[in-house]
Structures are given as C-alpha cells and as structure tokens.
Write a structure and sequence with these properties.
The protein is of the alpha/beta class and 412 residues long. The chain is 42% helix and 14% strand. The chain contains 17 helices and 13 strands. The strands form two sheets. A seven-stranded parallel β-sheet has the order 3-2-1-4-5-6-7, with helices on both faces. Strands 10-9-8-11-12-13 form a six-stranded parallel β-sheet, with helices on both faces. The longest helix has 27 residues, at 142-168. It starts with 9 loop residues before the first strand and ends in a 16-residue tail after the last helix.
C-alpha cells in the first residue's frame, strides 16, 4: 500500500531549555517532529534557550521574545503547532502568540488529568499524596492535610483562571490517556462549560517505531523495569528491589532486567543478594534505544513500580514490543487502566509491594497458560502509539475523518 504523504507544515514546541541532541528526538516533542517528517511533512522542533553543540539539524532555538511574538510564528508559514507547555500559566503568552498568528494549536497536557480540586477532591488528595511520598499516620498526617488544602486553594484562586486562558488559546487540548481525557473534560466543564470540554481529545505520547515485535525473538519469563533509580519518591526503587527479591525467590525460572542508572543503593543491594537470585537480576545501566528494543522483544513483562506517572513511555515501548504491563490501579497512574485493557497486563489493586507481587505472579501465570499473545499486543498498540500513527491522529482532529477517544482501533 502506498504511504500517504501530507503536504503540511507542522512544528512542535518545547518552551524549556533541554538538550536538543539525539536523545531529544527519541521521545515526546522531538519524536513527534520526526514522526511528522515520516509522513512527508515539513516539520521542525522549536525549543527555548541558546544553541548547544549537539542540537539536531531540525531544531530551532528561540528566545522568549520570539516565542511570544505572533509575527515570529507567522513568518514560518505554519499549518499547526503542537505545544508541550503543560497548560502552565507562565507559558500563556506563547500559546496566545501562536493563536493570534492564526495557526492551528494543539496543547499537549502531559498529565493524568488531575490538575485541580475541580477534578474531584478524592482524586486531588490521592494524586498529591502520591507525589509527596508515603503518608504519615494519625495526627502526623495533619500538617500534610493542611499543605494539600492550601495547594488546592492556590490552584483554584490563582492557577485555574490563568490555566483557563491558556487552554482557550488551543484548538485541541491533547491528553495522553483516556482517563486523562475524562478528567480534563470534567475539569474544563468546571471552568468553561460551553465549548472547551469539546476540544479535549486523546493524543498519547509517541513511541519510537524501533519498538515492535516481529516474532523473530522468543518471549521468555523475563521482566524489564526501567527508571531513574535515584528518584526515590516517584520511581520507588526500594519497592522494586523488595519485589524483585521476593518474586525470584518464588519463581525459579524468571529473570529481571533493571534498566537505568545503577545507583549505589542498587549496586549494594545486588551485591548482597543470594548468588542464585543475583544471577537472575541484571543491572544493565542505561541502554541505547536499539539495545532496549531488543531486550523488550525477548521479555514478557514491563513492570512499573512508580507512585505516579503521567504516561510512562517505557510501558508504551514495551507494549509495542509485545510485552504485557504490570503496575497499580491508582488515580496517579491513569494510563495503566488503558495499557492493560486489551489482554495486555494486570493491575495491582493497591500501590503496595504485596499487591504488586500478586499482580506480577498472576501475569507470569497468564503467560504460562497462553493467555497473552505478543503478536496481538504489539499490533494493537503500534496502531495507537507509534509516532507516525500519533501524528496521523493529530491530523485527523483537523479533518472530516472519524477520530477516537477510546481504546478502539484507530484503523490506520
């Protein structure tokens, strides 16, 4: 079938000074830019800050003065911009400049959708607790409760009015999971019930097409865990290590690859394990995308021990590689209800080590009993998550073609 080419000009924009090297173009706005290019479009990435030596050739560095100028945006003769600005009030002038330039604007919301008490008090409290770490018990929780209440009042009184102005600049408010779509629509109904909720649509983060499953590698009882393991509050390496040791004590044929920075804590723990268990736990360090893709094609499960994640690209990469997913059912982990919805994973009922261990054991049993099919998992999630398909979904939002805000196939 001949590949359809879209003769349009779309930029992506990140108004933060990140590195613009090769790694930038493997995910988020950099990967989306390259995905537009794959469709035959003229696409560049825009980023704030001074130029760096390793910046890619398709990256434009811009000063804040330029990013907030509608004339600067007009000169590029664009059809559209995808702005990765989290709906933050401080980036309102950039969104306003793009809007005034008459350019189609997609506002990416890298979030589970819980951005204010308007999303519902229980979800707001649960999400804040997930970000703040383990909950104190009894009267010790009182200072945290006061902090969460004050943060909620600040959101309602100060942040929400300016976030509303920011969101109103966009033609599309793009959320990264169906759960986030539902919550953001509820949030928008609380702010501006007419018009704005209808602009909220599902646009997941893109996954690099290098992550796929072609059947050339046999799946084995192998689990991959990926994280910035020095981030104790979010990634929870202590939980991951505890579960890994207990699981491999019970499951004699299972191996675990721990991908990411090898912290002193990880190294000391691994050194102290029984030899038979340590031999089946591999501290790989950070891997290049090609090596990680190969590792995922051989694994059965991608495991996320995090307390909170807006999306978790590693799980998306695993799904496209034919892995199933294990994590928790929690408001702060909204994507995982979606990720496990197609016979593609198991969620722990609570975000505790004991429940995670039960979920992992159940998922390993699902693989042993033939209840997981890596080909069907990969094929389904490639349709939703590979970069070019995400780019096509954005273009659908500005065409007469049907769009999807559910977990039904997009039909690419």
């Amino acid at each position: 079938m001949q590949k359809k080419s879209f003769h349009q000009r779309w930029f992506t924009c990140t108004p933060v000074d990140f590195s613009g090297g090769p790694e930038f173009f493997t995910r988020d706005s950099g990967l989306l830019c390259r995905s537009f290019q794959t469709l035959g479009m003229d696409s560049l990435a825009v980023m704030a800050g001074p130029a760096r030596k390793n910046d890619g050739p398709d990256l434009i560095r811009a000063k804040l003065l330029h990013l907030t100028s509608s004339d600067w945006w007009k000169q590029h003769q664009l059809d559209g911009v995808v702005l990765y600005a989290w709906g933050m009030p401080k980036f309102l002038p950039i969104a306003h400049a793009i809007h005034r330039a008459g350019i189609k604007l997609v506002l990416n919301q890298d979030s589970v959708g819980i951005v204010s008490p308007l999303n519902g008090i229980p979800d707001w409290v649960a999400e804040r607790n997930a970000r703040l770490g383990p909950c104190p018990q009894g009267f010790k929780y009182f200072p945290r409760a006061i902090r969460i209440a004050l943060e909620g009042l600040y959101q309602l009184a100060v942040v929400d009015p300016f976030r509303l102005l920011h969101l109103l600049q966009g033609d599309v408010v793009a959320c990264v999971s169906p759960g986030a779509v539902e919550r953001f629509r509820r949030y928008c109904r609380g702010l501006a019930p007419f018009g704005l909720p209808g602009r909220v649509h599902l646009v997941p983060h893109p996954v690099n097409p290098i992550f796929h499953y072609d059947g050339s590698t046999s799946k084995t009882p192998r689990i991959v865990a990926i994280g910035r393991w020095d981030d104790h509050l979010q990634k929870r390496p202590d939980v991951m290590m505890h579960i890994a040791e207990r699981l491999l004590t019970k499951e004699q044929s299972v191996e675990i690859d721990i991908v990411g920075n090898v912290t002193p804590q990880l190294a000391n723990w691994h050194q102290g394990l029984e030899r038979a268990i340590a031999a089946r736990i591999h501290l790989t360090g950070r891997l290049e995308p090609e090596d990680l893709a190969q590792q995922m094609r051989a694994a059965q499960i991608i495991y996320c021990s995090s307390a909170h994640e807006s999306f978790h690209i590693a799980s998306g990469e695993g799904l496209c590689s034919g892995c199933s997913v294990v994590s928790s059912k929690a408001p702060s982990l909204a994507s995982f209800d979606w990720f496990t919805s197609r016979n593609s994973g198991t969620l722990a009922e609570k975000n505790s080590p004991e429940d995670h261990l039960v979920a992992l054991e159940l998922e390993l049993r699902n693989w042993r009993e033939g209840l997981r099919n890596p080909d069907s998992i990969s094929q389904y999630w490639i349709k939703h998550l590979h970069g070019p398909n995400v780019a096509r979904q954005i273009l659908r939002l500005f065409s007469d073609l049907p769009i999807s805000d559910t977990n039904e196939p997009l039909g690419f």
